[in-house]
Design brief:
By secondary structure, the protein is mostly helical. Helix content is about 90%, strand content about 0%. The protein is globular and about 55 Å long. It starts with a helix and ends with a helix.
Length: about 120
């Protein structure tokens, strides 16, 4: 596979993680219908931003913007929910583990790989 193909696969996986996380979060807050609507909105924003980033050439700010936005929102909500609950700090830390392992760490690692592949693709 070429670096460009790998970069597209990584971008797709990041978008899928974002769609799942935001859909799950909204679904837990407001129900399944709003979760499905939010997943469609996140997919649309991610697709639109990827198209703008592709047209922009070397700059990838449009790809980074929804990724950061849709990562910071669930992270801040998870932190706020954990801090406001009446639990011990150990229980709060244990509550973060699925979010970190299942969403935050994969997104961060995939972003690192995406930017390395982007540098290779643009360099050649």
């Amino acid at each position: 596979m070429t670096d460009k193909t790998l970069r597209h696969i990584v971008a797709t996986v990041i978008a899928m993680l974002l769609i799942f996380q935001i859909g799950t979060l909204i679904s837990a807050l407001f129900g399944m219908a709003w979760g499905a609507v939010s997943a469609v909105v996140v997919a649309g924003v991610s697709f639109f931003s990827a198209r703008i980033a592709k047209a922009g050439g070397k700059t990838s700010a449009w790809f980074l913007l929804p990724t950061v936005l849709f990562t910071i929102f669930p992270l801040s909500f998870t932190v706020w929910k954990a801090v406001t609950e009446d639990k011990s700090w150990l229980d709060r830390a244990i509550g973060f583990v699925p979010f970190i392992i299942g969403f935050a760490a994969p997104v961060i690692l995939l972003l690192v790989v995406f930017y390395e592949l982007r540098k290779r693709t643009l360099g050649s």
